[in-house]
């Protein structure tokens, strides 16, 4: 197991999970619904984080279906009648084989140096015909589109400096910055069938869920960012200002069946 860079905040209301849920849940739910998920499905949600996807799945597959949700940090996950919460490291712990109709992981393999091995473990956890859905970022597209008129060139440069510093920290921790760009091919290489994928770049305005996510992740690694306190405070202001617009990380998703 690697050490998860953003772990251990100890806060039950982690702003990062709130931002992820606001930013991504609607797309995740639509994608998974298209696969026909319904009453009776057995689902595995890997690295479930704040639990929003696991809780939604639990409602969709009730009453006969079941969701197992795993994470190395289960403090925000909720046991329910048809939900089992498992403290589990997907790199080093075993998973049952041929067990699930759906395995879903969002922004988990991105961080794991052993992502290709983990992908094969997730494949093997599927029953024949079951679906694997991965949703991942390609961080490279993020660019500044506009900032407010006061001090604009410096502000745009500051946003790009923070992006580059953040990506360096992630890279050193073992993340694959453009993993999203190769996730569809990785599913094919793992021998899955009916593979398809999508990639979306949006505009994130200051104060939106996307910019809240950028601010929350920067705060989590503040000590590793080569910025003065004034620069960091200015970055947080920019991430909250509606005058800021950046092109987002590309949100890449891919699905395939065993
Ligand atoms: C960026 S968060 C994504 C959370 C959730 N999937 C979402 O999209 O809202 C990454 C999650 O992966 C979990 N994680 C990191 N390393 C893990 C590992 N080796 N095994 C299982 N979960 C892991 C983290 O604890 C965290 O909850």
UniProtKB/TrEMBL annotation:
Gene Ontology molecular function, alphabetical: methyltransferase activity
Transmembrane as UniProt keyword: no
UniProt signal peptide: none
GO BP term, example: methylation
CDD domains: AdoMet_MTases
Pfam family, one: Methyltransf_23
Domain of life: Bacteria
Sorted UniProt keywords: Methyltransferase, Transferase
SUPFAM superfamilies noted in UniProt: S-adenosyl-L-methionine-dependent methyltransferases (SSF53335)
Protein's UniProt name: Methyltransferase domain-containing protein
């Amino acid at each position: 197991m690697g050490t998860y860079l953003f772990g251990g905040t100890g806060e039950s209301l982690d702003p990062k999970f709130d931002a992820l849920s606001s930013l991504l849940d609607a797309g995740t739910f639509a994608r998974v619904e298209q696969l026909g998920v319904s009453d009776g499905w057995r689902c595995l949600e890997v690295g479930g984080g704040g639990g929003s996807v696991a809780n939604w799945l639990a409602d969709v597959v009730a009453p006969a279906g079941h969701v197992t949700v795993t994470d190395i940090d289960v403090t925000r996950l909720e046991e329910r009648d048809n939900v089992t919460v498992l403290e589990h490291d997907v790199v080093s712990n075993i998973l049952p084989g041929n067990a699930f109709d759906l395995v879903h992981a969002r922004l988990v393999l991105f961080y794991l140096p052993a992502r290709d091995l983990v992908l094969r473990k997730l494949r093997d956890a599927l029953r024949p015909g079951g679906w694997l859905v991965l949703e991942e970022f390609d961080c490279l597209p993020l660019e500044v589109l506009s900032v407010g008129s006061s001090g604009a060139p410096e502000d745009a440069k500051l946003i790009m400096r923070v992006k580059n510093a953040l990506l360096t920290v992630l890279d050193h921790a073992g993340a694959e910055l453009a993993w999203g760009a190769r996730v569809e091919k990785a599913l094919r290489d793992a021998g899955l069938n009916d593979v398809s994928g999508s990639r979306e770049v949006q505009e994130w305005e200051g104060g939106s869920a996307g910019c809240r996510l950028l601010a929350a992740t920067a705060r989590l690694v503040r000590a590793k960012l080569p910025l003065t306190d004034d620069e960091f405070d200015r970055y947080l202001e920019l991430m909250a200002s509606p005058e800021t617009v950046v092109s987002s990380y590309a949100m890449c998703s891919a699905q395939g069946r065993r």
